[in-house]
Amino acid sequence: xxxxxxxxxxxxxxxxNIIDQEVGQHNFSTLEYxxxxxxxxxxxxxEFINLLKFxxxxxxxxxxxxxxxxxxxxxxxxxxxxxxxxxxxxxxxxIITAIEKAPDALPxxxxxxTGLLQCYKEYPQGIYVIGNAPTALxxxxxxxxxxxxxxxxxxxxxxxxxxxxxxxxxxREIDVPQIRVEGRxxxxxxxxxxxxxxxxxxxxxxx
Length: 207
Fold this sequence. Notes:
By secondary structure, this protein is α/β, with parallel strands linked by helices. The chain is built from nine helices and six strands.
């Protein structure tokens, strides 16, 4: 099944070749680079080489969790739409979107934050993918510190200017398997690219 998804189209293969040439030598592991390359393919932004950070067990945890059909919790619908096709072709993990769990926001909270808190109550050990909402990431980190129930993996890549740096700093300080993007960059395409890369690795590799 090698390259069943990752290089099955000539344009994708050519794009990956260009990325490889421009990246050149790097310090990423083989599995880490598969994720880096897919983010660059989705964004055409080579700065992610310097911004993407992996905790030691993040990729193994992600692969094993996907294979074991652990639910994927996204902050917003855009992330869900970016992964639903590949999820349906691989392990068919349930996908739950935080903002869809909250028709109304709790006082002083956003809808996404409210929905994320509900998701954590139901799926504390899920795979959490935050691409847009730093308030949701902050709420998740706070719950982990209080409840001591760790998700299998957190992908923390919210984008923007308000609370983004703070949310990523708080995530960095928590002992939980994580893949994050430092700084203000990130977003739904980045979050989806990371999960899709993990899905491909889980489906095609012997890890």
